[in-house]
Design brief:
The protein is mainly alpha-helical. The chain has helices at about 5-40, 65-95, 105-135, 155-180; strands at about 45-50, 60. It is about 70% helix and about 0% strand. It is elongated.
Length: about 180
């Protein structure tokens, strides 16, 4: 028997779906813009778009070579795709919310995948920032430095999701075992 999904969950599901669609379009636009600008300049202007939660630079960063430019945008693309994958898993999780006997079994792999997506994003962002800081003009290098964090704060969220995933899996195993004994 399927229960109806509460209206606030339907709204949340719609917001996540819109985020997924807008994020996909934004990622495609940013990647296209960067490639077009680099090709139109003949390789003399290789702009880097910074992705930060709080830090804002008031100068335009440019890659010193095509190799750095390609590496930077491959990292940028990997982060964007990981974020979209996270949103997709979240959307699928919200779609599971209904009276479903296999809810926990279906939820466990989605939560695990969301945890891995956050972990990938956390470490790839550090690589992106390393490349960005390396491209700063020489006058700015004494002012800005980068240090790799072995355990970034996002990794804590990822570990929590991975633990939750295992708990859901264990709960499903217990439920299956109880169903067999009754």
């Amino acid at each position: 028997m399927h229960a109806s999904i509460p209206s606030y969950l339907k709204l949340l599901k719609l917001i996540v779906l819109l985020s997924l669609l807008i994020g996909s379009v934004a990622l495609a636009v940013v990647m296209t813009y960067s490639i077009v600008v680099a090709l139109q300049s003949g390789g003399t202007h290789l702009p880097l778009i910074l992705m930060s939660d709080a830090l804002r630079f008031q100068l335009d960063l440019e890659a010193v070579s095509w190799m750095v430019f390609v590496g930077y945008y491959l990292l940028f693309l990997a982060i964007g795709l990981s974020a979209l994958f996270f949103l997709f898993c979240l959307y699928r999780t919200l779609a599971l919310v209904k009276a479903n006997a296999r809810f926990v079994a279906d939820l466990s792999p989605l939560v695990r995948d969301m945890g891995f997506a956050i972990l990938v994003i956390a470490y790839l962002k550090q690589g992106l920032w390393f490349l960005a800081v390396e491209q700063l003009p020489v006058a700015y290098t004494p002012l800005v430095s980068f240090s790799f964090q072995l355990i970034p704060e996002q990794a804590i969220y990822a570990v929590l999701l991975l633990v939750l995933s295992r708990l859901f899996r264990y709960a499903q195993l217990l439920q299956d075992e109880q169903d067999l004994t009754v």
